[in-house]
Automatic annotation (TrEMBL), chain A:
ABC transmembrane type-1 domain sequence ranges: 52-257
Main location: membrane
Pfam families to which the protein is assigned, alphabetical: BPD_transp_1 (PF00528)
Organism of provenance: Caproiciproducens galactitolivorans
Keywords: Cell membrane, Membrane, Transmembrane, Transmembrane helix, Transport
Residues passing through the membrane, by range: 12-31, 51-74, 86-108, 128-147, 238-257
Keyword ATP-binding: no
Name of the protein in question: ABC transporter permease
Annotated compartments: Cell membrane
Membrane topology, as annotated: Multi-pass membrane protein
Domain of life: Bacteria
InterPro entries assigned: MetI-like, MetI-like_sf
Family: Belongs to the binding-protein-dependent transport system permease family. CysTW subfamily.
TrEMBL record, chain B:
NCBIfam families to which the protein is assigned, alphabetical: MMSYN1_0197 (NF043075), potA (TIGR01187)
Species, as recorded: Caproiciproducens galactitolivorans
SUPFAM superfamilies to which the protein is assigned, alphabetical: MOP-like (SSF50331), P-loop containing nucleoside triphosphate hydrolases (SSF52540)
Protein name, entry field: Spermidine/putrescine import ATP-binding protein PotA
Subunit structure and binding partners: The complex is composed of two ATP-binding proteins (PotA), two transmembrane proteins (PotB and PotC) and a solute-binding protein (PotD).
Protein family (similarity comment): Belongs to the ABC transporter superfamily. Spermidine/putrescine importer (TC 3.A.1.11.1) family.
Domain ABC transporter stretches: 7-237
Keywords of the record: ATP-binding, Cell membrane, Membrane, Nucleotide-binding, Translocase, Transport
PROSITE patterns found in the cross-reference section: ABC_TRANSPORTER_1 (PS00211), ABC_TRANSPORTER_2 (PS50893)
Function of the molecule: Part of the ABC transporter complex PotABCD involved in spermidine/putrescine import. Responsible for energy coupling to the transport system.
Amino acid sequence: MKAKSAAAPYAVWMTIFIVVPMVLVVIFAFTDKSGSFTLKNIAEVGQYSNVFLRSIWLGAVATAISLLLGYPLAQIISHISPRRQSVMIMLVMLPMWMNFLLRTYAWMTLLEDNGIINNLLASFGLGRLHLINTQGAVVLGMVYNYIPYMILPIYSVLTKIDSSVVEAAQDLGANRVQVFSKVIFPMSMPGVISGITMVFVPAVSTFIISKMLGGGANLMIGDLIDMQFLGSAYNPNLGSAISLVLMVLILICMGIMHQFDDGENSGGGIMV
Amino acid sequence: MENTPIISLENIAVSFDGEVVLKDFNLSIRNGEFVTLLGASGCGKTTTLRIIGGFVKQDTGDVFFNGKKINDLPPHKREVNTIFQKYALFPHLNVYDNVAFGMRVHGKSESQIKTTVNEMLSMVNLNGFAHRNVNLLSGGQQQRVAIARALANEPKVLLLDEPLGALDLKLRKDMQVELKKIQQQTGITFVFVTHDQEEALSMSDTVVVMDKGEIQQIGTPQDIYNEPRNAFVADFIGESNILDGVMHEDYLVEFARHPFKCVDKGFQANEPVDVVIRPEDIDVVEPDTSHLSGTVTSVNFKGVHYEIIVDVNGFKWMIQSTDYQEVGNRIGLSLQPDDIHIMHKSEYSGMFGDYSTFSDEMDEDSQNGGKEAEIYE
């Protein structure tokens, strides 16, 4: 009874700020400007399928790169002395203390055609590169901003793996590669799943990064939604429909991800 | 008899952070033997096991396996398997896959794996458990999975690191019998680490008593019990009355102010010695018919026998007898020559063997393996 009443404020909070907005999004998605039911908005989303594909593709690439870079780092950190571990974790999180916009602006000045990198290249007599307003720049921005969310959950799962389990695998004849592929990696799956979730979801729906580093040519779903609510193409109904479709697509992607987890998620993973 | 030992450790020394764990350690283990490393925690027994397993690298000295030096061989290439203290089962695999792990790593065929896994599971009485989640098994069942997993690899030597420590008394006794049976069936060399002297005596072919990183005595359980080499061994294995004595000549020793005939020889004339008398060897007689007599100061009922503490001229003896004695009674103690065991003096002389400070609490502690608390704290 006590636990129930203690949970009440949270339940109220969640109802007001999560459930109600979700319901509103659904209502907006299925109504027109006059408020009557329509499927037109959902049907219109179809014409933006290339934007959806690009967003999911760029998000997936950024997630894959974050995993490939973040996992080894998480593993290295989990093996050093506890004091150095906390320093390293602080360094991983340090960029997050700075404003997200500022960080992305910084990348703009680095990547611009007359930016720091190109000026540096030119001063060495090397040719200038077109860096900004490319898909590569968007992926770079995503990886840079979201990689801590990959490293942290993987790190926290890795530190919980009992060293005697690793020894048992070695004892039974597993070499380093086998210890990793048969014991450490499968046991770290909950962390990997939450890392992927926490990078992929914001990466797919970002709009700042694509706007600032991708230019007009690399429009993403986030930009599209942004335009429907705050931009020139003001149409909250269509914006809601796009959001709804995006939500469903992400849920499907996560559902597929969780298939790999075998349902043996022993805590530590974040459910979507 | 002159076979090369399956494992031999020569002049091994290890220290961690400047603290000596093993010093000049020599041990050879014959093929098919059940060897127990016995000692209180911190005596270096687990380190010895980990050196054999390849998890700890000795500072100096050599490890031989079947006559071949394996100092630099990593654990996964050694033909030994370990049963870890906390089992270390793979939590992401079920019972079957845990047992199959070693064979899969070695690239055995799935049909062969299936046969062996089923064979192993029935050996440890876990038929029908193949697809259970290991995290939901009881301690005893997890223990059996760990045994099956190690044996499925067909090791030449099985290393067991206090495998029964976490089990309750009844289960521990059952597993002792079962492990001994498995060892005899498979003929695999077992190196067993424990701090429980009873476990060591009842299971082993050879017991290695260790303290402070050194071997105190190696021998059969009977040797260790009947012929302890020093006061540490005498005290650690069972109960002992340990007295100061002087060896006058062969077969004649003086202690408790009286000369006694004994069966030991080879000491120097008038050499100071430690005399060990096991409590169960002492016969209670009328006080005036014996050289030793004293007052009963306490009596404890232990089920099979009474534990009687007798004050003889200030030294408190322990006697185990099936006959009850009244506290305050004067009784005589009678000893036969073969009840008396003589040991050279050692660094442990005078530390053990007088029951003046004896209490029930300490007795219980030592039953529960809290012996280290008694010695080190």
